[in-house]
Amino acid sequence: MEKKTKLILIGILIVIVIIALIQNREMAHFSFLFWKMSISQIILIPLLLLVGFALGFLAGRRK
C-alpha cells in the first residue's frame, strides 16, 4: 500500500508541475553580477526543479 501512495503523490506532483509550465510561458529576465540573461520560464522551472532535487538528494544522503 505504501508504494501505491508514493506513486499517486508523484503523479499529483507531475500534474502540478505541468500545469505550472503551461501557465508560465513568458520570458524571465534576471541579472547576476554583470551578466544579464533572459530565459523562457518553460526551461527555467524544470531546470530549477532538477537542481533542487539534486541538492535534496545530496543533502539527504547518509554517510
Task: Tell me the layout of helices and strands.
Elements: H1 2-23, E1 27-32, E2 35-40, H2 41-60
Antiparallel strand pairs: 1-2
Walk me through what this model shows:
With 63 residues, the chain is of the alpha+beta class. The chain has a domain at 24-63. Helices cover 67% and strands 19% of the residues. The protein is built from 2 helices and 2 strands. It has helices at residues 2-23, 41-60, and strands spanning 27-32, 35-40. The chain has a two-stranded antiparallel sheet. The longest helix is centred in the first third of the chain and has 22 residues, at 2-23. The two termini are 29 Å apart.
Give a quick account of the main beta sheet: strands, pairing sense, barrel closure.
2 strands, antiparallel
CA radius of gyration is 16 Å
How many alpha or pi helices? 2
Gross morphology: flat
> SSE order in H/E notation?
HEEH
Give the helix proportion (percent range): 55-70%
User: What proportion of the residues form beta strands (DSSP E)?
Assistant: 15-25%
Distance between the termini: 29 Å
Residue-averaged pLDDT: 86
What structural category do the secondary elements indicate?
Answer: alpha+beta
The strand line-up of the biggest sheet is 1-2
Unreliable sequence segments: none
The count of β-strands is 2
